[in-house]
Amino acid sequence: MAETGIHVLPKTGAEAAKQGTLASFKDFVVVEVLNDDPMAKYIALLGRFEGRDEVAVLLLNRKPFNKDSLSSLVGEGLELQHDFVNDIYSKYVGKPPPEHATVTVDLIYPATEKHVRKYRQQRRRMVKETPEMYEGIILPYILSYPPAALQWVYNVLEKKKEVDRLIFEDPDPQLGFMLHPDLKWDQQQVDQLYCLAIIHRRDVPCLRSLDLTHLELLENIRDKGCKAIQDKYGVPANSLRIFVHYPPSYWHFHVHFVHAAFAAPGTAAGKAILLDDIIDNIKIFGKDYWRQRTLTYQLGEADDMWKLLGGAV
Amino acid sequence: MAETGIHVLPKTGAEAAKQGTLASFKDFVVVEVLNDDPMAKYIALLGRFEGRDEVAVLLLNRKPFNKDSLSSLVGEGLELQHDFVNDIYSKYVGKPPPEHATVTVDLIYPATEKHVRKYRQQRRRMVKETPEMYEGIILPYILSYPPAALQWVYNVLEKKKEVDRLIFEDPDPQLGFMLHPDLKWDQQQVDQLYCLAIIHRRDVPCLRSLDLTHLELLENIRDKGCKAIQDKYGVPANSLRIFVHYPPSYWHFHVHFVHAAFAAPGTAAGKAILLDDIIDNIKIFGKDYWRQRTLTYQLGEADDMWKLLGGAV
Predict the structure, then answer these.
(1) Residue B147 half-sphere exposure, CB side, CA atoms within 13 Å?
(2) Is 0.90 exceeded by the ipTM?
(3) Are B60 and A74 a contacting pair at CB < 8 A?
(4) Longest distance between any two alpha carbons in chain A, whole Å
């Protein structure tokens, strides 16, 4: 690099970043918090190196605790500052020794608009959908949905796609369904099991459509889905959280089977509704139960439905 | 303390621990890793102070990143060590400045066998609690619960504890409640907001106890709780996920208010039930709704209730 005899100037952050040789973020400016996941202790930032137009996406992740070096973590090196005490419960802020306090830093630089969108989180809102809002706004919206949006589902049901991933099929046109591992699941660890059952019937867009005439279908999915998962993966029915999403991400009825130990995204109340709750409510409270309810659920602000319901809630 | 002229000896860790005045874990020995959640960057340890038989449960949690002081986190103070580079993607190990590297430390000391069981990782099971199982097994179990287990709740309600943390109180003996930030929440970042409303009435152990006579109480909690949170933290009602747990971790009715963007533990369907769903169901389907339902929920295998119900499901 210095072969012409010119002084080697200290590299700017931008140059070092491109070579993966940054020493710190000295001349870096954060422009936007793209996402912040306090549960995972993760944050995604958009920023710029001084004097540069190109943007960078920066991902910071706390490290898990290292079980193999607990004696150096939990010892004299962990400085404690009192926060709170009540009976046998006390709470401190702890400063761990530096080697136990590292974070992983992922940098994408220069980042494209596509990277930025990928890592940017949208605001989530809770809405209350009354039966009248469903009939007047959501149902027409579902019915106006272009059929092409469900083509990928029909490709799966017609075995044009994902045939090699099929776990189980009940081909009955009224009661039948297909069960596949969800694409999110790598099928390596059964305690992260995530499977999807898609029904063969094409006239049930969502939870709101369900009544007494669908009970046999719902029980069939539950019973045969659980048996297929037990047979293939050895996970018993009582280790499965079985639910639907309302609203679903596509308007063709499908059921999620997820390992009960797995805190998968999309399992929260206000998004997930247990299949057993769906069945129990129809049985006890009548065929119109899911049409009579005011359903409270989360929507992203970028969601079409938030725009449709936004004024009304 | 030293009024008799005796030297004040340096306190042992065990003594300091009981008073919430530990400075470090100098004379603490880890006996067992009870749980390790690398996703949440959390670890639960069982240990002892030297020379003591009583055990302690120690919970360490990495702090989420603090969005409000990013300039001091992402700057010169974040020391980077090169890990990997490929095209625009690079990866480092980062050493954040100490104030950005703290962990929360929760200590239960002396801990009972029940605490140890609670924090020891256990297999999660889904159970179906029929109305008959509630009446025959769970209700007698609740009623047999030692009142001392709720003493900490009564301490809060009687303002013997946590007075400085009180956000809002409605003192009405029938409709009233107290609202506090949950201990899990450090009150720094509103998108991690987690508050708890505890009712003044002492005769409502859980969801199953609720009927038409509690509607006013439930709506009061929702409406005044949301208003108090809006006033204090600026978070509007439609950014809150409001729910109860069934089964709850203690049998005195309380309601969780959590930011909708926050994937907090315990928000999953099969554990959390939305307050609006509770209200809506009582209104539409009658006063006995929550007694008539078969409730499907998760239990740890070490839970007393799993043992009680285990044979029956």
Answers:
(1) 4
(2) no
(3) yes
(4) 87
How many CB atoms neighbour CB A189 within 10 A?
Answer: 10
Q: Is the peptide bond before A110 cis (omega within 30 degrees of 0)?
A: yes
Structure tokens at B134: 């509630």
Q: Where are the beta strands (DSSP E) in chain B?
A: 28-37, 42-49, 55-62, 79-86, 89-95, 103-108, 124-129, 168-170, 177-181, 194-199, 240-245, 254-259, 272-274, 295-300
Is pLDDT above 70 for B1? no
DSSP string, A100-161: GS-EEEEEEEEEPHHHHHHHPPPPEEEEEE-HHHIIIIIHHHHHTS-GGGGHHHHHHHTTSS
- List beta partners, residue A34: none
Taking the CA of residue B190 and the nearest CA in chain A, the distance in Å comes to 11
Closest residue by Cα to residue A105 from A57, A144, A142: A57
The model's pLDDT over B70-114, given as tens digits with 9 standing for 90+, comes to 999 999 999 999 988 888 989 999 999 999 999 999 999 999 999
Q: Could you tell me if A280 and A105 are in contact, meaning their C-beta atoms sit under 8 angstroms apart?
A: no
Of B47, B64, B155, the CB nearest to A41: B64
List all residues 6 or more positions away from B35 whose beta carbon is below 8 Å from its beta carbon.
B42, B43, B44, B119, B120, B121
- Structure-block tokens of residue A229: 């998962």
3-state secondary structure of A58: strand
Contact status, residue B200 vs residue B157, Cβ threshold 8 Å? yes
Give CA angle at B244 (B238, B250), nearest 5°. Answer: 145
Comparing CB atoms, the residue among B43, B76, B192 nearest residue A24 is B76
CA B256/CA B238 separation, integer angstroms:
15
Query: Crossing angle of helices A275-285/A215-233, nearest 10°?
Result: 150
A17 with A49: CB under 8 angstroms? yes
- Residue-wise pLDDT for B166-214, tens only, equals 999 999 999 999 999 998 898 988 988 999 999 999 999 999 999 999 9
* pTM for this entry: 0.78
Closest CA to B184 of A103, A84, A121, A80: A84
A281 and B293 in contact by Cβ < 8 A? Answer: yes
The tokens for A237 are: 């029915």
Task: State the amino acid at position B35 in one-letter form.
Answer: N
Residues A278-301, buried b or exposed e (16+ Cβ, 10 A)? bbbbbeebeeebbebbbbbbbbee
- A101 Cβ contact list (under 8 Å, min separation 6): A95, B95, B96, B98, B101
**Which of B96, B296, B313 lies closest to A103 in CB terms?**
B96
Q: How far apart are CA B268 and CA A189, in angstroms?
A: 21
Residue A148, min C-alpha distance to chain B (Å): 31
Q: CA nearest A108 in B: which residue? A: B89
The DSSP 8-state label assigned to residue A188 in this structure reads: S
